[in-house]
Amino acid sequence: MASTKKFDLEKSLAALEKLVTELESGDLPLEKAMQKFEEGIKLTRGCQAALKEAEQKVQILLKSAGGEDLQEFEVDDE
After folding, report:
1. Predicted local confidence at residue 71, as pLDDT
2. Which of 5, 36, 61, 66 is 20 to 30 A removed from 13 (C-alpha atoms)?
């Protein structure tokens, strides 16, 4: 993010969860739902950027410490 304000991932995730709940309720007029959807897209992009930055920092730290390369993380879909 270009601003000097630090991105707050936890706050953004909470706001995103609230938006999803509001949209899933189906009680919003179309125009308001579209505004909420657009806000959700912006939050999602910010979260993705913050996670990518964190991953890059971890890779840098591992390489500078002589650690092994990162392995792909697999999630069990139970």
Report:
1. 64
2. 61
